[in-house]
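About this split. The held-out portion is used to measure sequence recovery: a designer receives only the structure tokens and must propose an amino acid at every position. Recovery is the fraction of positions where the proposal matches the reference. Here is one held-out target exactly as it appears in the evaluation file.
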């Protein structure tokens, strides 16, 4: 009887096995039994993660299955019952290899020890290198997309979940995004070996990155501090940075997001979400202070009012008139609250703040 026509196991495994001769499976090797169990599970529609096995075991299993023809029902029942008994007798399992152990101990051992063990054990022992690459944080993947060739970046995007790939592509300058998108169209001829080598190279690159004490770069940290500083303090610090290190000052300016930057950095469609995240009193105070200040602050306030519903906008204008003059200190605190709300939504992934480079590229493209 062909293997594809093996009758289904009836009753419990133990009951059928008890009716069969005890030697029904004794003549089989463990490799043959494994092939029978896998064939049975696949036929029953069970997903078997064979890709997690080392390559030699996958090859041995495939070769064994190819060499077998059929087994009778008694042998099938005996093998399945033996397999079930071994599973039931298992009290505790350990992760496979150093990679699995590190994953199980993540957060329990020091980052220095984990990094040393990763380096000593080798990237290959961590299984599929693409799994590590795809699990990297967004900033790391953005750095890879910016530094690698469009062809490598296209392979990386193709390996990611579609939603995450779209998010990363949207964070790149328009010209770079278009080059990578075109390169994706050229990946049809990419061989599995080539993709595997690229994944291994990227995974190795990730493991060679030194562990740093801070999650963000110095320009982001300085920019975040200046976001919540008084305007006079912010401009004074930036002027001093310009005199000391113009390149660093330019990076800090890119990292800064203030109320006046709203027209350049915040998508108009995201404005209602930001205002919903604010106490009404803070929003009214911020708009009142900004409109009274004129210039870029007034422009930002008018944009906010224009992008809200007409009913909401009219109500806010009335409250601004009733509110009257806002002190400088209170106005700056309220505008900082608006900026903080936008930052919070960005951290949650609900909105995306454009960088100066992205805005510039969109204006030109």
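Reference sequence for scoring:
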């Amino acid at each position: 009887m062909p293997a594809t026509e093996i009758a289904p196991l009836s009753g419990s495994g133990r009951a059928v096995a008890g009716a069969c001769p005890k030697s029904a499976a004794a003549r089989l090797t463990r490799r043959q039994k494994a092939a029978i169990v896998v064939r049975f599970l696949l036929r029953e529609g069970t997903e078997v993660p064979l890709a997690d096995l080392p390559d030699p075991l996958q090859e041995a299993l495939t070769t064994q299955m190819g060499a077998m023809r059929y087994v009778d029902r008694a042998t099938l029942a005996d093998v399945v019952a033996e397999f079930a008994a071994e599973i039931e007798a298992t009290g505790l399992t350990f992760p496979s290899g150093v990679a699995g152990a590190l994953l199980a101990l993540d957060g329990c051992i020091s980052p220095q020890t984990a990094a040393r063990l990763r380096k000593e054990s080798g990237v290959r022992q961590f299984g599929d290198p693409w799994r590590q690459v795809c699990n990297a944080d967004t900033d790391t993947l953005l750095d890879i997309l910016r530094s690698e060739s469009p062809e490598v970046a296209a392979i990386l995007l193709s390996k990611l979940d579609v939603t995450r790939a779209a998010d990363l592509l949207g964070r790149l300058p328009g010209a770079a995004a278009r080059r990578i998108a075109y390169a994706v169209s050229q990946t049809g001829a990419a061989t599995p070996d080539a993709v595997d080598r690229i994944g291994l190279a990227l995974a190795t690159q990730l493991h060679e990155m030194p562990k740093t004490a801070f999650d963000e770069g110095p320009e982001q940290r300085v920019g975040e501090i200046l976001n919540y500083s008084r305007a006079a303090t912010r401009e004074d610090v930036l002027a001093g940075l310009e005199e000391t290190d113009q390149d660093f000052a330019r990076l800090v300016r890119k990292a800064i997001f203030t109320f006046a930057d709203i027209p350049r950095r915040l998508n108009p469609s995201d404005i209602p979400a930001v205002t919903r995240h604010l106490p009404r009193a803070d929003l009214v105070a911020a708009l009142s202070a900004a409109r009274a200040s004129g210039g870029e602050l007034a422009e930002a306030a008018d944009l906010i009012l224009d992008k809200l519903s007409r009913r909401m906008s009219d109500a806010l204008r009335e409250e601004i008139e009733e509110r009257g003059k806002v002190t400088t200190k209170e106005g700056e605190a309220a505008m900082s609250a608006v900026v903080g709300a936008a930052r919070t939504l960005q951290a949650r992934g609900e909105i995306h703040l454009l960088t100066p480079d992205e805005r510039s590229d969109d204006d030109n493209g």
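Annotator remark: Residues 1-21 have pLDDT under 50 and may be disordered.
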